[in-house]
Amino acid sequence: MSEPFRVAVRYSGPDHCALAVVGELDMVTAAELRRVLQQAVATYPSTVVDLAGVSFCDCTGMSALLAASRRAKERGAALRLRSVPYAVARMLRLTHTRKAFCFEFGESGLPLPGDGATYGPPTSRPHSPSVVFR
Asked: 37 near 49, Cβ under 8 Å?
């Protein structure tokens, strides 16, 4: 069983907001994610969304992320995704929407999805990256 959905503000300052998302991004939770992300990108010049705790993502979850990315670009703000898990990386690949986002390096120091990256299943090693490059 996955953790209950939640979006927590990890940090906010005058120019920056960092959010952590946990749980499943689906038709039940996408509206809440959309609301929080839209508010963040409308308020802060820079927003980082840590997705390490996301266990599932469907098209409505991806739609919420894409809407926030569009809104950020409209107002000249930055929206970056961090610690992208396999569930989200797979949706980015399947929907060909990877280029709609900017990515931060994960805790492992490995680059997150970029041109030419392919995705594999998550590894079970401790401290492994969220996205496996092959």
From this structure: yes
